[in-house]
Design goal:
This protein is mainly alpha-helical. It is built from 20 helices and 4 strands. The radius of gyration is 25 Å and the shape is globular.
């Protein structure tokens, strides 16, 4: 245990620095310092995860021989490993311009999964990760509270310090789960733990994300039911009391902004472009009426290749038309500019948001092996952003993403990996009550992943599952060994 290690030995343990580097790599996502040195170095070279992953590999890999493998973390690791390997092997077939980036993300993920098992094999490393999460989550809370790192263009009225709203609210709820873990383990004073729970829960809701709000509410209800089943009345009373106060405080100070944001988004998608909007759209993207002259404009003699490229970049594709009868349009450009088409959606009850269009897009022509990694692409005129053309490279739903990119096989492997990750949890949560906190975070991650982020953004679920399965497996083995020792003494 960490408190049993003397300070000199603690300073000598380089693996603890490796655990810290691993935690930073896991929670930093694709955060890059391009804002400061983007003109000097390429963006991938400035990513935080690159250098922290390198440091973690160097410092932790020598301890790989000490991994506490058990059937639970073995099954969990094999499940996610097979899924990632399948996605990597699928990538060369039907590759798109963003496929290479997806493959890089998958390589990062498989390295982080292996490092997670190494980290969780030692209690001190495990605690260093938890402390890192609490510190980073607290720092992001303070940055968002003070407005130092606020970005209104990124998340409107909601809190989203540094890494964006999705990263922000997931880290804040991870901090909430770590605080609950400490309380269930009696590792902190009750008043301090209660304060952390309130702060991180409020910060999660302050992101004003509908996905975060729904996922947090469901997770807290499940945690409440779990604490009732455990008959842990003290923690139950504290959790319910804090949750009620936080939700009431959120409703008093931020609910109006939340409803305003939701209503604005909904209303904008129910409104057709005005004539002034159309004028700006046509000016910005040069949408044209179909004609033979337009279609052959880029192929006239005398036009150089550079001029053709420049002209083509100013057109969505030759021969587009646009109508004021519809509220927003989507460019379907799978097969190149000549075959691209604009699909305009009428005001129907079944199609009242771009997310529903993503659903139909992801479900079109489902195949066994999918359409190819990073092949999902929708160019949409976003009515909530002045009808700016925006490109969506994933459907904001992890299941639909895998179904479209990797087919029925990919979704099947995802289900198997999820089953392996959850099997150990249900096996040990009755014996180790503190696992309930980790289960709450896993549920939060899964629900929010149905409405935001891509497969790499789901990484914290896999990493946390591997770490608690390693921890729980080791705890179970120690318990069995202790029972055997007691039986020998009694004999």
């Amino acid at each position: 245990m960490l408190h049993n290690i003397s300070l000199p030995k603690l300073l000598e343990r380089r693996d603890l620095l490796g655990a810290f580097a691993f935690a930073v790599a896991a929670i930093s996502g694709k955060l890059s310092a391009t804002r400061f040195m983007g003109e000097v170095f390429p963006p991938w070279l400035l990513e935080v995860r690159l250098w922290t992953t390198i440091v973690a590999v160097i410092l932790l890999l020598p301890f790989a021989r000490l991994i506490d493998w058990n059937r639970w973390n073995s099954f969990s690791f094999c499940g996610v490993f097979v899924l990632i390997v399948y996605l990597i092997l699928r990538a060369p077939f039907g590759a798109a311009d963003l496929t290479a980036r997806k493959v890089v993300d998958l390589i990062y993920l498989i390295i982080l999964c292996y490092l997670a098992v190494i980290v969780a094999s030692d209690a001190a490393r495990y605690k260093i990760c938890g402390a890192t999460v609490l510190i980073v989550s607290g720092a992001l809370f303070l940055l968002a509270l003070t407005g130092v790192a606020a970005n209104p263009e990124l998340n409107g009225l909601g809190w989203a310090a540094v890494g964006g709203p999705l990263t922000f609210y997931r880290l804040e709820f991870l901090g909430f789960s770590c605080a609950l873990w400490m309380i269930l383990h009696n590792k902190c004073h009750l008043a301090f733990g209660s304060m952390l729970l309130g702060v991180f829960l409020f910060a999660t809701l302050a992101s004003l994300s509908k996905a975060a709000y729904g996922a947090a509410a469901i997770a807290i209800l499940v945690l409440t039911a779990g604490l009732i089943a455990q008959r842990n009345w003290r923690t139950l009373t504290m959790l319910v009391t804090i949750s009620i106060f936080v939700f009431l405080g959120w409703h008093e100070f931020l609910a109006s902004k939340f409803y305003m944001r939701a209503n604005t988004a909904f209303a904008s998608q129910q409104t057709a472009p005005t004539e002034s909007d159309l004028a700006q759209i046509e000016k910005r993207y040069q949408l044209v009426v179909p004609s033979n002259k337009t279609k052959s404009a880029l192929h006239e003699p005398g036009i150089t290749e550079s001029e053709k490229g420049a002209a083509a970049g100013h057109f969505l594709a030759p021969g587009f038309s646009f109508s004021t009868e519809f509220r927003w349009c989507v460019l379907d450009d799978q097969n190149g500019g000549e075959k691209a088409r604009v699909t305009c959606h009428e005001r129907t009850l079944i199609d009242q948001s771009q997310r529903l269009f993503f659903l139909f897009k992801a479900l079109e022509q489902p195949t066994l092996f999918g359409h190819g990694i990073a092949n999902f692409r929708v160019l949409a005129l976003n009515p909530g952003a002045g009808y700016r053309l925006e490109q969506y490279n994933y459907p904001h739903n992890i299941i639909l993403e895998l179904l479209y990119d990797s087919g029925i096989v990919g979704v099947g492997l995802l289900v198997v990996a999820l089953v392996f990750a959850l099997a150990g949890f249900f096996r040990f949560v009755g014996r180790e009550p503190a696992l309930l906190a980790i289960g709450g975070f896993g549920l939060f991650m899964f629900i929010s992943a149905l409405a935001g982020g891509d497969f790499y953004d789901f990484r914290l679920f896999w990493l946390v599952a591997l770490m608690w399965s390693t921890y729980a497996g080791a705890w179970s083995q120690d318990a069995l060994l202790m029972q055997a020792t007691n039986k020998e003494h009694l004999a």
